[in-house]
Every structure is written in structure tokens, then in C-alpha cells.
């Protein structure tokens, strides 16, 4: 079902079911992370590390992290100009914003040309994907999938398409570690600008990170 016609909520969340919902408020108090002005990137990085240390529930982690990403993007006007332009031969470009041995996140800017599609995959980590830029910048159509088997059979996964949702600049999506999606980059009407994304990935469980082929029910690590 394509929910793109529904009023768009800025914050969305998706998990194993493949149902994409407006993000609920976290059950834990976010006052541990006071608003700062300016909200510097170094502060954001420390807040994320504190979040992992103080909040154990993945759902709450995603909801709090999405609010922190929203705060950062509202203030950090240097981020959008830092986005790389997609390489014409690859159709995308990746700019790593932060990675440090032992630090529990990887933070990247990824830019995509319209028309680029990803395989069906999970992240095996909780993740935040924010679509950035103005109304002329590209969108990202997400197809979410629901895994129907119990995962016990090696190299086998039976997937059913679940919901579709097109993310636009201003949307922030939180993905639970077991969420499965495939994406297609789309241009905004009357524009050919790339899709620009700000991404936060938690520490992945690499043994459970897969690319799926729903046509053959095969999967492989990535
Ligand atoms: Fe993804």
C-alpha cells in the first residue's frame, strides 16, 4: 500500500512488520538531552553515545535519536553544503561524517541520482535516515518487506511486500534492526536534483545483515 498520499509526518518509524507509522514519542524522558543553541555536531555525537549507554530499548533509542537528528539538522546549516554530488558512473556518492574505533555509530551523507535503486536489504542495526535539502531535492521511495519464515533454514528467506512510503526532504525515518527495505531514488516534480540523505547507523550485527532476493527466496550477507 502506498501511503504517500497521506499527510506526511516529519518523523516515521518501521520495524519487522514493514508497517511505516508516524513515530511515537519515546517512553523515556528526553530531558537528559537538553536543547542547546547552537547544537554542535560534537555535542550530537556525545548525546548519541550517552543514549546508547543510558537507554537499552531499541525502540526508545530510535525515537530519541530521531529527535536529536531533527534538532541537529534544524541548526547545522553546514551539513547540506557538505553533501557530495553523486558520481555519474556510480549514481551515488558517500561522505563519511564521523567514524572512530569503538564509537558505536557511523554517520554518513549519501547523495543519489534519480532512478538509482537498492537491493532488498536490512541494516541489522538501528538506523536513522533523514532526507535533507529543499523542496526541489529528490525523494526516496521505500518499499518495506515483511519476512514470513522463522529464519531457521540457512540461506532462505520468504519475503512479502508490505507498505510503500515515499520520503521527502524533512522526513526522518527510524529503522529497527529487523526492518527490511528497498529504495528507489526519485526526483521532485520539475527537478532533476539528487536525493540527499543524512544517515546514522548503529553497530551492525554482521551475521544478520543481508541482501535478499524475494524472487528466489535467497539471501546473502553484506
Ligand atoms: Fe537501507
Automatic annotation (TrEMBL):
Record-listed E.C. numbers: 1.13.11.-
Keyword Oxidoreductase assigned: yes
GO molecular function, one term: dioxygenase activity
Keywords, ordered alphabetically: Dioxygenase, Oxidoreductase
Signal peptide (residue range): none
Protein name: 3-mercaptopropionate dioxygenase
